[in-house]
Amino acid sequence: MKNQVQLITYVDRLTGSGIRDLIKLLNGSLAGVFGGVHLLPFFHPIDGSDAGFDPIDHTAVDPRLGDWEDIRLLGDAAELMADLIVNHMSSQSVPFQDYLQRGATSTYAGLFLTYGKVFPRGATEEDLLRIYRPRPGLPFTYTTVATGDKRLLWTTFTSQQIDIDVSHQQGQGYLNAILQRFQAAGIRSVRMDAVGYAIKKAGTTCFMIPETYAFIAELTAQAHALGIEVLVEIHSHFKQQVEIASCVDWVYDFALPPLLLHALYEADTEPLMKWLAVRPNNAVTVLDTHDGIGVIDVGADEAGNPGLLEPTAIHELVEEIHNRSHGESRMATGAAANNLDLYQVNCTYYDALGQNDTEYLIARAVQLFVPGIPQIYYVGLLAGTNDMELLARTCVGRDINRHYFTLGEVETALSTPVVQRLIELIRLRNKHPAFGGTPSFHSAASHLLTINWTLADEWIRLNVNFATPYATIEYSCKDTNGNGTICRGWNAETSKETGR
Asked: What does the pLDDT look like over 404-427, one tens digit per residue?
């Protein structure tokens, strides 16, 4: 991946229409802002039970957005990343519908995972309670096929998302066909969605077990053979993130968003500094995504190993998000909303900071200075606020941060000072040569943070005072003849540059 900032977006929710309009936006108002684009599910259909993460056909572009030729054209504007939804497919897919009709005689019978495949001799209560769950309840859906046979299908997330048997040759062929389709369309990177749940084995947690690591390595090798890089999505204890990072191209830094909120809420950088000292550099940094703000990533694991934040600090963090968002996040989180996840708070990052422009720009500045490839979510790019109307209409908690923008709304947002300053930061991150060099971190006091990047005689420095809060950026700048060094400054309040 290019060492430049990427955009994460749904096509229709940013443009209000299709891929061609996204191309126009990237070549127009956002020209030169993003080096890459992570396209969230654009497969058929984009409006299933889980916003495209339950594809009926993972190898087809939803015709309402365009076609594979449009995807190739988009790849001319920016490097493309797409989701490889590893764990499951839609219950409305052709393979599963055939299985419902024919049962064991279906051509696709080996594609789906059942209780009996994992527990051929049955499971004890202890076996079932050991299974790691991202959502309440057991991961099974009772089904009767047309032949009269009864099955307990493995459904990790919802009954509309049928788990694939990735150990079976049909499951392997299914995933390989998607990778082949991606390569033909010029997609350069894939995000392995929900891959931590892909391997199920009796007597284990069925989440990130040794066999899962082996599966990830095998699938990564297949992607590499096609010239495709791999980003692995895992929400887990921070030490597990460090471990998996040594085995793949890229991992998400999901610990950064809650640690930055903690630093801004409490003027306390100690947990953040602890993480900066051990985190992998081959990370994709985010503050917000199509999912919520994760808290499991900074908490203790099930074995009791301490996390980056104490339980009381996590509780206070969550309560402050609810407070800053005037209770809106509480209405979208946990038992208050359907499609709930046990490890995240649903809220826009801008609202989690009480729509405070200075704090928001400080958070973005730190994100852009932390080693890795920064990704900016489309709602975050536009400093979007909680969509309570969409939440009320769908009763899906994560929809609070999945607004459908019109092109007019996009242009209005791009003209606001906070968004203009954010784009200025993004351009600086993309162009300054020091970001290709070596980073260092320093904290003279618990409320202070300095991040330096140096490359030969080029340098750039971010200074943050979380107590004020206030931040400045200073950096080297060659004159028009390439001689000498000019220092310029930026601050999170005014974004005015002053020569020194």
From this structure: 999 999 999 999 999 999 999 999
CATH number at residue 135: 3.90.400.10
- 71 and 181 share one domain: yes
User: Domain residues for 258?
Assistant: 6-87+169-434
Regarding whether 30 and 123 lie in a shared domain, the answer is no
State pLDDT tens for residues 286-318. Answer: 999 999 999 989 999 888 899 999 999 999 999
Alpha-helical (H) ranges within 338-416 are 349-352, 357-369, 378-381, 388-394, 407-414
Asked if 233 is an active-site residue, the reply is yes
Q: Which residues contact 230 (CB under 8 A, 6 or more apart)?
A: 189, 190, 192, 219, 220, 223, 224, 248, 249, 250
List the CATH number of the domain containing 336: 3.20.20.80
Task: Tell me the Cα Rg of the chain.
Answer: 23
The predicted model scores a pTM of: 0.94
Nearest to 384 by CA among 424, 351, 425, 433: 351
The reply to whether 302 and 330 lie within a common domain is yes
Helix H or strand E encompassing 335: none
C-alpha 422/C-alpha 360 separation (Å) is: 9
Residue 299 sits in the same domain as residue 150: no
Catalytic residue among 12, 62, 193, 253: 193
Question: In terms of domains, do 280 and 349 share one?
Answer: yes
Q: Are 240 and 305 in contact (CB under 8 A)?
A: no
Residues 46, 59 share a domain: yes
Nearest in space to 236 (alpha carbons), one of 321, 190, 161, 303: 303
Active-site pick, 233, 266, 291, 387: 233
